[in-house]
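Entry type: protein chain
Record version: 2
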Amino acid sequence: MNPNIPSIELALPETGYVVKIQKWLTIGQSRELQRVMFGDASFNPAEGKMSDVKLNTFLDMQEKAAGIIIQSITKGDETISFTKEWLDSLPIKDGNLLYEKVNEVTGNASLSEDARKKS
């Protein structure tokens, strides 16, 4: 966890967890996620597009991203450690809300600086 990265708090309504999430990725974190995505896919640099991305690869990248950008998880006075098991045990409503935020942060990693300021 990098304390210099600003964060937001996301309250999960079903479980009552409060998840502190980075607002943006570092270049190293972004490249780490790209390695997961490019593992099984093809990339055309001339078009700047990926093809043949398998669903499992995308899901693996989302899980990895959640582990990277989640700074803390609390519920009342209790602090919970992030694990894949914790993530997988969330009710669908909470899990979808969390993944929406993960996708927002990782999606911003590919935006230009001007586009990021507008998001």
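Comment: The radius of gyration is 15 Å.
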